[in-house]
Amino acid sequence: MTTIIAAIAENNALGKDNDLIWHLPADLIRFRKTTTGHHIIMGRNTYESIGKPLPNRTTVIITRNKDYQAEGCIVVNSISEALEIAKSDKSPFIIGGAQIYKEAIQFVDQLDITEVHHEFEADVFFPIIDKTIWEETKRETFKPDEKNKYSYSFVSYRRK
User: Fold this and answer.
1) Each residue of 100-119: pLDDT tens digit?
2) For 9, how many CA atoms within 13 A lie in the half-sphere containing its CB?
3) Fold of 3-159
4) How far apart are CA 160 and CA 111, in angstroms?
5) pLDDT for 66-87, tens place per residue?
């Protein structure tokens, strides 16, 4: 079950200037809990914005740069190569960025989305979730609190 995991705003915003736009600790905790022990597949820009391999995960970086290297990571040149590397994992996760999401959405079984109930100015966006292809299977909604400035929902989708 390959899954895309992402946090997106109401206007499908993902980020700006190669960085996150908002800070939601609840989403970061969920991300860590969900992806720990699994392969995480990402583009080079996403990896460089994180700056290091994430603990207790196998980091797979996709880049067109054939000479790119990152210590402690597996570097490949396509989505198909990344999925092949991760095939021993029953639940690999694709964690971004926008171009990787756009290319990978056709190959995945599930979407694990944090909807941030706010619109943000952004320069990268998540693809539109086509409800004729994706069925919502679970939704948990939360109000803002002292740690999380925006209301948000954890939403799971499965390919129909």
Assistant:
1) 999 999 999 999 999 999 99
2) 18
3) Dihydrofolate Reductase, subunit A (3.40.430)
4) 12
5) 999 999 999 999 999 999 999 9
